Amino acid sequence: MAIDDTVRLGVAELYAAYADCIDDDRLEAWPDFFVDQCRYLITDRQSHEAGLKHGVIYCASKGMLIDRVTSMRRVLMFEQHRYRHLVGPPRVTRVEGGVAEAHANFFVARIMHNGETSLFATGRYLDRIDVSARPLRFIERLAVLDSQKIDTLIAIPL
Amino acid sequence: MSVQDVRFDGAVNWPSNALSEVPFRVYTDPEQYALEQERIFKGEAWSYLCLAAEIPNPGDWVATTIGEVAVIVARDETGAVNAFVNKCAHRGNLLCLTNKGHGREITCIYHGWSYDLEGRLTGVAFEKGVKRQGGMAPEFHKEDHHLQRLRVEELCGLVFGTFSDTVADLHSYFGEKVVSGVRRVLEGRSVHIIGRSTQILPNNWKLYFENVKDTYHASILHSFLTTFHINRLSMPGGINISDDGGSHFSYAKLDYAAEDADYKAANLRSDTDLKLQDNSVVESVDEFGDQISVMILTAFPNMVLQQVRNTIAVRVVRPRGVDKTELEWVHLGFDSDDEAMQERRLRQGNLIGAAGYIAMEDGCVGGFVQRALQFNDDDSGIVMMGGHEAESQNFRASEAAIRGFWKKYRALTGV
Question: How sure is the predictor about B6, in pLDDT bands with cuts at 50, 70 and 90?
Fold first, then answer.
């Protein structure tokens, strides 16, 4: 079944805006990319393929996303750093009942406050997106890392 | 060559016999690191290997490490668990190249030597030569070239191994107190893995192992619970330390009913307080019926068993050089978990691990110490909180368990 080009364009815009939001350090706006009853996970390929639901970050509501941001800003101790996302072109594989399934690859560089830059994470977003209303919002976003190894810590969402 | 024959001329000197002084060079010195590999990880200590549940069937094996040494843990046809070095007796090639597998034998890819799941050499390719030419020398006997085996014992589904022929049995090694801590969480329950990940820590392995034993820092460095008014610091707790000092568990109780009332009150509190939007990240049940909400157990030298509310995890500490450590998190569920408990463990999983609300800081703080010690490690740090001894205590503002670590460490390394 052909997928409407406006859906494809909308998803592409959503992915780009999401990455900008994080990379520009506008994290307070990050939860708004999700519907209220959402799921956001950082997991890894091996765990995902084994059907494990556990995530290094596991958010099952928009409130939990907001709590992540509040904690990061106000509570948790870590060295300041930022990300630079490179998100490949999204592929929308299915649209049904106002929900699109889509995925895209990502590379994320981590830039420490002292300028030290490293390739922090590679992987794939696996998404279910509410395309029945504007703006498009994630119902589910899985950030599936290629590797099970994480350098030091994850404070900022991917 | 026995351990005692290894000379470590440059090993670190202690400023005194006190357990409460720790020379900083112990975290930076490459010779000290090599000495630890010999005398601790290959010495008189039991190291955690894997969960029995990871190798449930005959033929199952996993490849892991003790310290930096590659080992294989395999369940043989009789159902017994064996461990042996992951190194072909022929040319020293790594035998198992993946983390886990299954088979009746293990065959080296290099020259086709094969071993059974007890580590016995059973086959040598072209042993008799090809067309009556070549072949192994007549004095070669396969039975002289089995893989080096480790002693293996299990405790509540945790598999441990040691290179030592002389170290006491596992139960005696950990002692009654620490064994009771393991039993509290795991005995009579069948576990499965609900998630796993590995954190790369930019610091010496001991800085992490001490951090886990450090009951002093918990409510200071990790401010998540206090910020959101969900921790009652006055609740009773304590530290149990094994007689040799090396292993321990600390625990703290929680008034679950009072906390629940607090959540409700929090919704009425002034807006100046930070509030969680979704309390499910901490909403826990008294799973073990003893009000203990946090139990952190260390098994010297490489394992942590944790219960943080309803999260259960094994953490494996793997040294990877003097200033690098791999910390594997193996998150556990029990087969008896209902759906609500499964979801609870997943949500509370946000508390722990590389992105954990009360664990994230432990991932970086060791690295900060390591950086501060760069060419600035001539003096010593102090661990005097709660005295100078390494005895069990019924309070937690103490560094007793850290002192216990050094007691065991110095006994094994002879420094």
Answer: very low
Q: Which residues, other chains included, contact A69 with Cβ-Cβ below 8 Å and sequence gap of 6+? A: A27, A28, A30, A31
- Rounded to the nearest angstrom, the minimum Cα separation between B139 and chain A is 47
Residues of B in contact with A76 (CB under 8 A): 224, 357, 360-361
Query: Closest Cα partner for B98 from B59, B123, B72?
Result: B72
What is the rounded distance in angstroms from the CA atom of residue B361 to the CA atom of residue B221? 7
Is A150–B227 a contact, with Cβ atoms under 8 angstroms apart? Answer: no
- Pick from A1-5, B143-147, B297-301: least confident: A1-5
Q: Residue B218 has what pLDDT?
A: 81
User: ipTM beyond 0.90?
Assistant: yes
Which residue ranges form the domains of chain A, and what is each CATH number?
A: 5-145 (3.10.450.50)
- At residue A41, the 3 state secondary structure works out as strand
Q: What is the pTM of this model?
A: 0.94
H or E segment to which residue A21 belongs: helix A5-23
DSSP B113-167: -EEETTS-EEE-TTTT-BTTB----TT--GGG-PPPEEEEEEETTEEEEES-SSS
* Residue B275 pLDDT greater than 90, yes or no: no
Mean pLDDT of chain A: 97
CA distances from B118 to A63, B78, B121 (A): 52, 10, 9
Cβ <8 Å between A66 and B200: no
Residues (pLDDT < 50) of chain A are none
Task: Compute the distance between CA of residue B371 and CA of residue B328 in angstroms, rounded to an integer.
Answer: 22
Which of the residues A153, A154, A158 would you substitute to probe the B interface, choosing the one with the greatest number of B C-beta atoms within 10 Å?
A153
Which residue in B200, B349, B314, B331 sits closest to A42, CA to CA?
B349
DSSP letter at B352?
S
The amino acid at residue B337 is D
| Distance to chain A for B360, nearest Cα, Å | 6
Quote the Cα angle for A67-A72-A73, to 5°.
100
> From the list A63, A75, A76, which residue is nearest B278 (CB)?
A63
Residue B59: Cβ within 10 Å count: 15
Six-digit token pair at B3? 């351990």
Residue B116 β-bridge partners: B105
Q: Are B310 and B345 in contact (CB under 8 A)?
A: yes
- % of chain B with per-residue pLDDT over 70: 93
CA angle, corner A110, sides to A106 and A113, nearest 5? 160
Domains and CATH numbers, chain B: 47-153 (2.102.10.10), 176-413 (3.90.380.10)
How crowded is residue B180: how many other Cβ atoms within 10 Å of its Cβ?
Answer: 14
DSSP H or E run through A87 = strand A81-87
